[in-house]
Design brief:
The chain folds into two domains: about 5-180, NAD(P)-binding Rossmann-like Domain (Rossmann fold, 3-Layer(aba) Sandwich); about 185-320, N-(1-d-carboxylethyl)-l-norvaline Dehydrogenase, domain 2 (Orthogonal Bundle). The protein has 14 helices and twelve strands. The chain has helices at about 15-20, 35-45, 85-90, 115-125, 140-145, 155-165, 180-200, 205-225, 230-235, 240-250, 255-265, 280-290, 300-305, 315-320, and strands spanning about 5-10, 30, 45-50, 50-55, 60-65, 75-80, 100-105, 110, 115, 130-135, 150-155, 170-175. The strands form three sheets. It has an eight-stranded mixed sheet, with helices on both faces. α7 runs parallel beside α10 (about 240-250). The chain is globular and about 60 Å long. The termini are far apart. Bound molecules: NADPH dihydro-nicotinamide-adenine-dinucleotide phosphate and 1,3-dihydroxyacetonephosphate (13P). NADPH dihydro-nicotinamide-adenine-dinucleotide phosphate binds near residues 11, 82, 105 and 276. This is Glycerol-3-phosphate dehydrogenase [NAD(P)+]. It catalyses: sn-glycerol 3-phosphate + NAD(+) = dihydroxyacetone phosphate + NADH + H(+); sn-glycerol 3-phosphate + NADP(+) = dihydroxyacetone phosphate + NADPH + H(+). Catalyzes the reduction of the glycolytic intermediate dihydroxyacetone phosphate (DHAP) to sn-glycerol 3-phosphate (G3P), the key precursor for phospholipid synthesis.
Length: about 325
């Protein structure tokens, strides 16, 4: 079977991992890096030494600094940081084919304008068919060929079906959905809760607290998701509960590791160690969206308060423990 032409925008850890997946069954997969020098280094080294050291880039992957590489692609995977998506989508407008699928693989919400990433795509790329790919998937695991399953969502069922068939491999299985918004909410929110789980771990609160925190984080995610129109099966699925459990349970998650460093006393400015922690950009906008929808999210609020220096980690933990007892919901 000939596979649809596919290009990848964003050459960090996840961009490389997805390009390697897409290279299975394709002769050539363009991989765009925003810095031409970075593209040249990837082409020479055949690995991303900064973001994914030691894991080779597949032979069919063609790193480039030229955004016109997406011209003939019927599928474009957008794997840049969430806060960079608007500028990249805007620049891609002149090159993207009419009716090409533009698949959001970043996890976040636009901070300044309070927009979901699919809203950015609708505004900046009117010719695109928007979709999102999200679920439990560490780039290094996927690059090593370890198995996982994620969700690909598009409002058009036929597009979701095509994408699931075009991107899936034996070890990277895509389940399809038409609940695009639900998938976006799960991916964005789990990063904030992973920071909270990391803080609990860093503070040494123990395994019981860790499990309680995941369950109450899921309650917050579900409340917000329902208020914003997400479907239950999405919230309970790979992109919701699945990714929450992964990211709240492993220091392989950069968001968890960031929270853990904060719990151990690191300053906010130092805790990420220079790594991308999407939850730090999402916490405030998530809380604002929840407040606008009249939804209570005390764990997300605590993360936001700590990141904006309104509360210490210990004061936030105290505030969560002192909340009035209530029925479970
Ligand atoms: N890593 C993972 O396991 C997973 C990540 N994701 C999501 O994928 C997205 C990207 O993450 P990931 O690849 O891991 O992050 P990385 O930090 O590994 O890579 C980000 C890449 O984006 C580049 N970049 C930075 N700013 C811009 C910009 N303004 N325009 C274009 N490119 C830019 C960076 O370049 P430079 O190196 O020059 O700074 C880097 O190559 C995030 O939203 C993340 O949540 C989703 C699932 C799994
Ligand atoms: O989204 C991810 C796993 O599904 C990656 O998580 P981090 O961005 O926290 O590393």
């Amino acid at each position: 079977m000939t596979r649809e032409t596919l290009a990848v925008l964003g050459a960090g850890a996840w961009g490389v991992a997805l390009a390697n997946v897409a290279a299975q069954g394709r002769a050539r997969v363009p991989l765009w890096a925003h810095e031409p020098a970075h593209a040249a280094a990837l082409a020479k080294d055949r690995e991303n030494r900064k973001h994914l050291p030691g894991l080779p880039i597949a032979a069919a992957v063609a790193p480039t600094g030229d955004l016109s590489c997406i011209r003939r692609a019927r599928i474009v995977l957008a794997v840049v940081p969430a806060q960079a998506l608007r500028s990249v989508a805007r620049a891609a407008r002149a090159h993207l084919e009419e009716g090409a699928a533009f698949v959001i693989c970043a996890k976040g919400i636009e901070r300044d304008r309070r927009h979901f990433l699919s809203e950015i795509v609708a505004e900046e790329l009117p010719q695109a068919r928007p979709a999102a790919l999200s679920g439990p998937s560490f780039a290094a695991d996927v690059c090593k060929g370890l198995p996982t399953a994620v969700t690909v969502a598009a409002e058009e069922e036929a597009l979701a079906l095509t994408l699931s068939e075009e991107i899936s491999t034996r070890t990277f299985r895509l389940y399809r959905s038409t609940d695009l918004r639900g998938v976006e909410i799960g991916g964005a929110a789990k990063n904030v809760f992973a920071i909270a789980a990391g803080m609990a771990s860093g503070r040494g609160l123990g395994a019981s607290a860790q499990a309680a925190l995941i369950a109450r984080s899921f309650a917050e995610l579900t409340r917000l998701g329902r208020a914003l129109g997400a479907r239950n099966e999405t919230l309970m699925g790979l992109s919701g509960l699945g990714d929450l459990v992964l990211s709240c349970g492993s220091a392989q998650s950069r968001n968890f590791a960031f929270g853990q460093a904060l719990g151990q006393g690191a300053a906010v400015k130092d805790a990420s160690g220079g790594k991308l922690t999407e939850g730090a950009f999402t916490a405030r906008v998530l809380v604002e969206m929840a407040q606008a929808a009249g939804v209570e999210m005390p764990i997300a609020e605590a993360v936001d308060a700590i990141l904006s220096a309104r509360l210490s980690v210990d004061a936030a933990i105290d505030a969560l423990l002192m909340r009035p007892l209530k029925a479970e919901s």
